[in-house]
């Protein structure tokens, strides 16, 4: 036996050392890359598992084979000789029983408790296929189905009825949802099931009486289930979902007033800058413009006679979509391909300064770069050099023309706190609100609701709802009706510290576990992993 193997065998003896008071090691050897330990139990008094009476009478001995964690990259097998004992208890119905070594053997178990715990934790943390790969590295070959089998055998902890319960839904598959219950005090998930109907939630609440507060979103289904299952519980409509619903309505209003959005751009009525000498005008004679003009005239000469687009395309030898494009155009200029607009860059705020300094006589790109760096520019010198290149040829700097904001961007500006808006967003929103009274009214109502959330004061809520109803904005009027139907829960959401933040965090973790299992996990497996993993994190932060 080599010296390295002897050292590994010494390590194995130390593994068995905690059990040496009950087990005697007889032999250690290596065969086929597997380390074997032969041991037997000592002649000690053993208690009957039924009556608890000690017994010293031995019926027989037999050998148990136990797998243990690998040492030095080699699997470990313990061949343990154990005794079958007689039970001498007069009232005990058991005649014989097999002794167990605490911490080393478990009834009907062919792995040591340490190795069995390793298999179970691999299943909890990595599920079937990932757990099997990890165990393969640890010299514990198991299939993915075996890993899942040992995972599902783990009992779920019996959670006490929570004082504050969080209820939220999540997407299992496309248009298939599930429900997750979370203890808001311990931040641990309690239960998970498929579906989000009121009857399931009401049945769970009836079997778990004592819930005092329930945090939820604005779902009518959960509202009805809580009312039926725990009528005395205080319902709290989560403030995040309230703000989310308001933000969605603001986006709808901005989309309905899309024609007002160009007002956010500075000087929207100013004429565009004159084209440079390199940009072709309508009268410029370029190859592309001549081609578009000739094609426009040829297509209209054919289609204006009443011939179909398909026949015109066949006659002209063109694609039907090309013929349709030119036939629908009013002028040939509409068919000319325009260069894409330049995207804004970090140098744009300094272009006017560069133009001014150039007119003053400073034509060195290095000096200009150093000057704007002192003003806050963090870009590279090469970008400044390319920006002033047109000035060396007597051409103007290519100044980007700002595009109107999208409805989504306007909704973000309105719902963002004024202290957190940038200077550009603040000025653009000011110009837009001065031009559009409907968006100005929407902004004022959003700020009022934000003030209620910040101060946790629901006193102005009735007056605010009345303003929504009389705002002549259908999106806000429908929101007012929805809040009035759930007004007690909304008041609790504004004034109390209870919220669904814990639910959202657990659902994020649940989605991660779904992705790890490639979205193929059923509800029972998903429930086991989510609950056990959360409990494992609590024990080992």
> Span between N and C termini?
43 Å
Could you name the ranges where pLDDT drops below 50 across 5 or more consecutive residues? 268-283
Structural class: alpha/beta
Helix content: 40-55%
- Bin the strand percentage: 15-25%
Q: Helix tally?
A: 21
Largest sheet: 5 strands, mixed
The number of strands is 12
Mean pLDDT: 86
Radius of gyration: 38 Å
In one word, what is the shape? elongated
Keyword list:
541 residues; alpha/beta; five-stranded mixed beta sheet; 16% strand; elongated
Notes on the protein architecture:
The structure is a single chain. With 541 residues, the protein is of the alpha/beta class. The protein is 47% helix and 16% strand. The protein contains 21 helices and twelve strands. The protein has helices at residues 3-16, 113-137, 144-152, 198-207, 220-229, 239-256, 287-303, 309-316, 320-328, 351-360, 365-374, 381-387, 389-392, 407-415, 423-435, 437-455, 461-469, 474-485, 487-495, 501-516, 523-539; strands at residues 23-31, 34-41, 46-47, 54-55, 58-71, 74-86, 96-98, 164-173, 176-183, 188-194, 213-216, 234-237. The strands form three sheets. Strands 1, 2, 5, 6 and 7 form a five-stranded mixed sheet that branches. Strand 8 (164-173) and strand 9 form a beta hairpin. Helix 6 packs across helix 14 and helix 8 crosses helix 9 (320-328). The longest helix has 25 residues, at 113-137. The radius of gyration is 38 Å and the shape is elongated. It starts with a helix and ends with a helix. 27% of the residues are buried. The model is unreliable at 268-283 (pLDDT under 50).
């Amino acid at each position: 036996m080599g010296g390295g193997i002897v050292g590994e065998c010494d390590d194995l003896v130390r593994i068995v050392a905690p059990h040496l008071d009950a087990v005697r090691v007889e032999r250690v050897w290596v065969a086929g890359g597997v380390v074997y330990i032969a041991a037997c139990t000592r002649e000690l008094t053993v208690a009957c598992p039924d009556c608890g009476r000690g017994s010293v009478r031995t019926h027989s001995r037999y050998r148990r084979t136990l797998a243990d964690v690998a040492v030095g990259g080699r699997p470990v097998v313990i061949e343990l000789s154990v005794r079958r004992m007689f039970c001498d208890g007069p009232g005990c119905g058991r005649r014989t029983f097999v002794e167990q070594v605490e911490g080393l053997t478990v009834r009907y178990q062919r792995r040591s408790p340490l190795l069995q715990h390793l298999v179970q934790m691999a299943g909890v943390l990595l599920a079937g296929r990932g757990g099997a790969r990890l165990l393969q590295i640890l010299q514990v070959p198991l299939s993915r189905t075996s890993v899942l089998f040992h995972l599902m055998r783990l009992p779920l902890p019996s959670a006490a009825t929570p004082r504050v319960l969080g209820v939220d839904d999540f997407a299992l598959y496309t248009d298939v949802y599930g429900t997750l219950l979370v203890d808001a005090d311990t931040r641990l998930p309690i239960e998970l099931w498929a579906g989000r109907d009121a009857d399931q939630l009401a049945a769970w609440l009836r079997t778990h009486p004592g819930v005092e507060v329930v945090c939820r979103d604005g779902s009518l289904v959960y509202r009805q289930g809580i009312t039926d299952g725990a009528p005395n519980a205080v319902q709290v409509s989560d403030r995040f979902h309230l703000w989310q619903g308001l933000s969605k309505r603001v986006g709808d209003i901005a989309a309905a007033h899309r024609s007002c959005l160009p007002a956010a751009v500075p000087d929207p009525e100013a004429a565009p800058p004159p084209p440079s000498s390199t940009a072709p005008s309508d009268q410029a004679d370029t190859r592309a413009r001549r081609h578009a003009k000739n094609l426009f005239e040829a297509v209209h000469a054919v289609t204006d006679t009443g011939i179909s687009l398909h026949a015109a395309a066949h006659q002209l030898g063109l694609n039907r979509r090309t013929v349709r494009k030119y036939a629908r155009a009013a002028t040939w200029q509409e068919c000319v391909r325009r260069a894409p607009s330049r995207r804004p860059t970090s140098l744009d705020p300094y272009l006017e300064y560069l133009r001014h300094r150039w007119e003053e006589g400073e034509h060195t790109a290095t000096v200009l770069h150093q000057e704007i760096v002192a003003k806050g520019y963090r870009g590279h010198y090469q970008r400044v050099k390319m920006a002033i290149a047109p000035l060396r040829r007597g051409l103007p700097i290519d100044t980007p023309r700002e595009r109107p904001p999208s409805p989504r961007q306007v909704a973000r500006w309105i719902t963002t706190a004024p202290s957190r808006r940038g200077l550009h967003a603040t000025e653009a929103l000011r110009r837009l609100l001065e031009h559009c009274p409907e968006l100005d009214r929407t902004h004022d109502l959003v700020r009022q609701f934000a003030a209620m959330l910040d101060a946790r004061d629901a006193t102005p809520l009735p007056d605010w709802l009345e303003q929504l109803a009389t705002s002549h904005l259908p999106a806000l009027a429908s929101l007012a009706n929805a809040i009035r139907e759930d007004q007690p829960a909304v008041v609790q959401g504004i004034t109390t510290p209870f919220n669904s933040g814990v639910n959202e965090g657990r659902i994020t973790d649940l989605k991660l576990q779904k992705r790890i299992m490639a979205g193929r996990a059923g509800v029972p497996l998903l429930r086991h992993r989510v609950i056990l993993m959360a409990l494992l994190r609590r024990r080992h932060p």
